Model the fold of this input.
Amino acid sequence: MNLFRFIPGYETAIYETGREPALFMFVAFLITFALTRGYTRAARLRGWGSGHVGEVHVHHLVIGFVLALFSGALEFAFVPEEGFWQLFLAACFGTGAALVLDEFALILHLQDVYWAEDGRTSVDAVFAAVAVAGLLIMGFNPLSFFDVNIWREDQFYGARALVIAGAVLTLLVAVVVLLKGKVWTGLVGMFMTPLLFIGAFRLSRPHAPWARWRYGNKPKKMHRALERERRLRRPVVQAKLWLQHVIAGEPHFPDDSEVNQQLDREIHAAPAPKERQAVNRETADV
Done:
């Protein structure tokens, strides 16, 4: 629809590239999440009642599920052409997704932990969703290896096999990065491939499966991983805790003791694999 053609660069950067629906979804997501958190915080402070149907408390994630499923089904069923309905369904999906992710911790823990420490998982899920949506709007594509000319125009099977091999290699590198405990590097690296290779070659995080398998008999490497994690992780934990406090309704900067407690929970050496532990016990007995 090109509703915001008056904004400099909107037509060329957003409308002509087909990113307008993604932008509407993203904006609806942010607005809904902000309004939802604002309302729940106000309701908690003022003692307002929650939504009930009879004696059943209806969490807003239920409304989000219905809205996201409904808008997604309509999009697939009718595939509306560019225009109002396409943008409307995109906004509905973004609204539903925000309502669901705002209570993601409830789904994960199967209990109402909205105001508890475990409720911060919902904030982490929203951070991830915002990062992915933002990268999509900026034009990054996790399947960019299938968007090269050699794939779209060259019908030679050898050339296409080369593209597929590159895609498989990228996915394998992404698996290595995730096994090293670098979730954010893996997530963003799917859009920016060089990040994947940097994450794959750098030291594993000490609690990750890779450290358990590879650093069990390399104490110096494990020590380096622990020291590096504690040194580099501290400012990240401070920023993360501050944002979580602000969003969750407790706006204050975390003190050192809180940061240290979080670091102690997050940063620990992964135990050696069971078979290696068994061998070490047998050796000690001998």
Remarks:
- Residues 10-137 form one domain.
- The chain has 14 helices and two strands.
- The longest strand covers residues 52-53.
- The chain has three domains: 10-137, 140-202, 204-286.
